User: Fold these one by one.
Assistant:
Number 1:
Amino acid sequence: MPSAPSSSPSLTEYESALDMAQSLAKRITGHLSQAIAERGEASLAVSGGSTPRGLYAELAQVAIDWSRVFIVLVDERWVNPNEEGSNETFVRQSLICDQAAGARFVGLKTADPAPTQGLQEVENRLASVPYPFDAVILGMGEDGHTASWFPYAQGLKEATATHGTKVAAIEAIQSKVTGPLTQRITLTRSALSSAREIYLLLAGEDKKRAWNEAARPGPAEEMPIRFLLGDPNSPIQTHYVP
């Protein structure tokens, strides 16, 4: 059973959210530019939430050839764009604008009534995206979830398998973290773990305490970020601002 390593993974701390955003924007756009030069295209997987907002604002100001960059959601609540909770709406407003307005966006929501019914359509959408991802931006909840890999959720086994499909349907156990929107669709561990770089962004003492707990040995199903923190082959790095 996956668990965190006996010694804590490394964590880079910044003095301010702006410092973190500017530093990571420079690194990520460097990865994307290198990928464009090498293979003509690049891919970036991004998450919702408040923590990466500043990073997205910085990325959107960098003048690279965004028309050659695919931006893919890491996960999505099963709500339509422009409805409350939509990660697609958040990313379009905060990242796919200004210099990055021409990026090729790949959303995860379909017109189907449930995420289980939309999986094949989303797999088809993702077939055009260059893999591996050149960079992945993740967050983490105080419950230890990342993407939509929620503790003991229905679909968690499929979402965290080391081989298989690129997306999985999730029915989370409702909590203060999930809120009422428990139906989700998420990129899988199989899709993410081969990425060239995975940036886990944390903000605030509560998230740091949760990360410290997740970095200790324990069942990965209890704190699913452990599927990545405990994987010696995962290129995950944690970046934190108090």
Note: Residues 1-6 have pLDDT under 50 and may be disordered.
Number 2:
Amino acid sequence: MSDQAATQDAAGDGDVEVETGPKKKGLSGKKLVLFIVLPIVLLLAIGGGLFASGMLDSLLGKAPEGEAQHEELAPLPTALYYDLPDMLVNLNTGDRGQAFLRLSVSLEVVSNDAWGLVDQVQPRIVDSFQVYLRELRVEDLSGSAGIQRLREELLLRVNAAAQSHVVDDLLFREMLVQ
């Protein structure tokens, strides 16, 4: 006898029970991951890699950032720099020993005419620097605020020695406190 007949005899009232396997509802979990989730993750990873490497910009026709910034910058005007001779001065320490300041300075002059004027008054500029620097203490030169104050004072003294505004900026080439 077949299984249906055996089941029918056991039930006795003629109802047939047919056993079937578990019903499949769409895609199973493994197939869902394999066919849907995995391709999406791979596409996102490839897109992220292209974006991070910068290749995506070239594919979309965008210019790299370095070139775009380079085009926007205007050329700098030619600046004239006048180098003063190196200076070595004693600092004011009171009675606590000796301290020295070695200083190298460049002046940014406004024009060729100003260059000639600075060249003519250079001894006067160096003298005013020497007098001012000898009265400084080591504490006056500490920190960026002290350096900025020194820059402003020296710039004022340069323009005062030239008796006009001939220098736009003062640049430190070397500054050593011992």
Note: DSSP finds seven helices and four strands in the chain.
Number 3:
Amino acid sequence: MIAYLKGRVVERGPETLVVECGGVGYEVALPAYLADHWSPQEGEVVELHVSYQVGANHPKPLLVGFRRRAEREFFERFITVDGMGPTRAVRAMARPVHEIADAIERRDVNFLKRLPGLGERTAQKVVAALCGKVAKYALLQEGPVARPAATADFREEVLEVLTRQLGHRAAEARRMVEEALRRNPHVATAEELFQEVYRSQRKPAGEEEA
């Protein structure tokens, strides 16, 4: 299975790249939000986190490329929704991952149903399947990020992800985690802490600390 590619762009299409790695050209599909806003030129070296998709409905392997591992993780959760195959998900992801994840966590069906190819029924399925599970991805920031490092416990894991995968500054990430733990000191896993960090960041202006 292919999970990561680093190589030279040899061909650029409207929604795909062909990346040469070790003398082999890999055709990689880009989700709509990335295809619309990222234009590497032929000859440019790129790094892509790849979701490798093959199955009964997709006998020809489909490689879907992302610039961040966290974006690939979100895509692989997105396609677990009933009726949401890889090709449909690639087209539907016309907005950045953090916007889609935020809409899911807010149960904003109106936002989701406007994504290409979804409609209200599928948007409701997305919310039902993923609400409460994608807060981590709603915290994604724009800009380059560093590679993740090994972590000691779930709090350090969350700090590492916030800074190295999601693009937050170290001091900002630590503040976010500390505020979340003050609001709910009983969180016991990284997933729960991401949820609490997300809730803290969405706290209405002027709301007092609990």
Note: The longest strand covers residues 45-55.
Number 4:
Amino acid sequence: MTQEITWQLKKFEELTGIEVYEILGLRSEVFVVEQNCVFLDMDNKDQESYHLQGRIGASLIAYVRILPPGLSYPEPSIGRVVTSPSFRRNGAGIELMKTAISNSYTLFGVQPIMIGAQLYLKKFYEDLGFIQCSEVYMEDEIPHIKMIQS
């Protein structure tokens, strides 16, 4: 990374309207438009999650939500992992996930983290210490696997 990313973690109710708009915009840009996947992004889990935003200047370039234990899985989870297309392949995604893992440990204690990962990202998550713990399954017509990091 040549430009430093500023990270900010907020509960849902701490997000401004502009931040929610930017987050949903980035998620739609990648998950709906780029991946050509029509799905309902707003699943009523955002309200109980923590939202990690990565910005360069005022621009949102990376985002994840950190879910508490029991919301998606018995373990804490990291989801909606997204990096702006213009900031890929420069380490922003790795930095995003390392920051998310660290924040999950701070919020919920050091314990295993479960994710539902798109199959094509298996190696990316393995490099961060996650291991596959399910068979391949289809979600919104995209192959996924469950992975756990401990």
Note: The chain is about 25% helix and 35% strand.
